[in-house]
Amino acid sequence: MEKQGKRSNRLVLVPGSFQGHLNPMLQLGSILYSRGFSITIAHTKFNSPNPSNHPDFDFVTISDASYDSDLSSGNILTIISRLNVNCKAPFQECLARLMEKHNSVEEKISCIIYDEIMYFSAAVADQLKLPSIILRTAGAAAVLFRDATVPQAVVTNFLKGLGSNDIVPEFYPLRLKDLPFSKFGSLETMSKLVNELRKTGNSSAIIYNTVEFLEQSSLARIRQQCHLPLFSIGPLNKFAPALSSILFHEDISCMRWLDKQTNDNTVIYVSLGSITQIDENELAEMAWGLANSKQPFLWVIRPGSVRCSEWIEALPEGFKGAIGERGCIVKWAAQEKVLAHAKVGGFWSHCGWNSTMESLSEGVPMICRPNSGDQRVNARYISHVWKVGLELESELNRREVERAVRRLMVDKEGLEMRQNAMELKEKIQLCLKEGGSSYTSLNELVKFIKSF
Ligand code: UDX
Questions:
Q1: Residues lower than pLDDT 70 in the chain
Q2: DSSP state of 112
Q3: How far is the CA of 68 from the centre of ligand 1 (A)?
Q4: How far is ligand 1, taken at its centre, from the CA of residue 355, in Å?
Q5: What is the pLDDT of residues 250-266, one digit of tens each?
């Protein structure tokens, strides 16, 4: 659709400043643009997207005091907290200017849509008397579990009464050890953040990147607890055209390598997302486990993701010789295209919610190796609710890795998981079509925004 064509009102979208948060917000922007809205992306200087990759949108930068050393700390919780302090006043000025600029009836800003981790946006929207909508980029089960349990007092109570493998009452099949703690801070810091994320304040609605049938009971419980309209319009990546990578450079040579593989469903794709780090010993155990499994593999090793290494210098001696052409290692891949490739038959993932939705929507079963935050909840749903994957829970060693890869890619149980995954893929596709739950919910969201 043309940028100059006749458009409905303008929406200002405030994405979270990390890859796993930018993706869903930009996808939502594309979807709403295709429904006729003008879109302005208000982003931080920290991890800013490249406007030239998104010619349909306008971009404004929120000054985030990027000299602040906390923003280069690498600690996600600290960064989120600083951004919320640093960005509030600059965003208010920026939004006031935008309101002045777009002041005609056709062009006026009808609402702000903000990632829940950018909660300063809610206060600014209130100040300027603009409606706001929250985008939650994690799954509904993870948010429900997080909001009910992470407040410190509740966790402390649990910790007294339950062992880590015990199921948390009312949250079957989640266990105490699946609590969405963060690797980046104490329970107290996490509790403070969750207290902010739980507040819906004066926001008018909540959007989830999920599908009704996948998380029906969690969504029902959230609807009972919070009386705001809730729109589940996922998987966003399936409604929106594929995004160019936002923060990393995609290596497309791996697509040619995939084309060259002989049989369908034989390649295991390995990627731990944009944040997770491993140490050198884990890298070595993963490497030998993959090599010994004898399965072809495509492995994304993000520069900086191996602690104390720039990239893959720490790969064990002899490993490259042992795998020959059977393995392909890249710094970053076009993940959605990789998962859609016929040769890919499994995904070893850290179970970030975007990766989870992308894998489910392509019918690819998973090996789950969650690391932090919501990922343990997602892993548990993948393995125990949807039954489309297995969790690698033990300490990472080459024998367990080899066994997990063969269980998923070769054994009968893996075949069953692939069948389940293909069934889910078909059901998800139905939800995206006219009459399907996500399709209907998206139409309702558009109507809702137009009613402001
Ligand atoms: C984080 C959290 O870990 C996650 O749990 C939360 O739900 C969102 O924020 P991240 O760890 O990066 O995100 O994982 P994920 O949610 O899976 O997002 C990663 C995104 O990067 C996906 O959209 C994936 O397609 C993309 N990606 C990843 C690539 O395009 N190429 C790659 O090589 C790896």
A1: 1-5, 153
A2: E
A3: 25
A4: 6
A5: 999 999 999 999 999 99
Distance 283 CA to ligand 1 centre (A): 19
Residue nearest atom 1 in ligand 1 by C-alpha distance = 20
User: What is the residue whose two structure tokens read 């469903």?
Assistant: 265
Specify the ligand 1 atom closest to the Cα of 276.
11
Ligand 1 proximity of 358 Cβ (cutoff 6 Å): yes
Q: What is the percent of the chain where pLDDT is above 90?
A: 83
299 CA distance to ligand 1 middle (Å): 15
Virtual torsion, Cα 154, 157, 162, 164, nearest 10 deg: 50
Burial readout 286-300 (b: 16 or more C-beta within 10 A, e: otherwise): bbbbbbbbebbbbbb
Indicate which atom in ligand 1 lies nearest the CA of residue 24: 23
Spatial CB neighbours of 400, under 8 Å, sequence gap ≥ 6: 289, 392, 394
Q: Over the chain, what is the mean pLDDT?
A: 94
Which pairs with CB-CB distance under 8 Å and at least 24 residues apart come from 68-76? Answer: 71/46, 75/184, 75/185, 76/18, 76/182, 76/184, 76/275
Please, what are the domains in the chain?
A: 9-243+431-450 (3.40.50.2000), 253-429 (3.40.50.2000)
Q: Is 324 left (phi over 0), alpha (psi -120 to 50) or beta?
A: left
What is the spatial distance between Cα 391 and Cα 404, in angstroms, rounded to a whole number? Answer: 8
Predicted pLDDT of residue 197: 95
**Cα 254 to Cα 107, 148, 164, distances in angstroms:** 44, 42, 40
| Ramachandran quadrant class, 432 (left: phi over 0; alpha: psi -120 to 50; beta: rest) | alpha
pLDDT tens digit string along 108-159?
Answer: 999 999 999 999 999 999 999 999 999 999 999 999 999 988 877 677 777 7
Distance CA 333, CA 159 (A): 40
- Note whether 221 and 144 are within 8 A (CB): yes
Question: pTM of the prediction?
Answer: 0.96
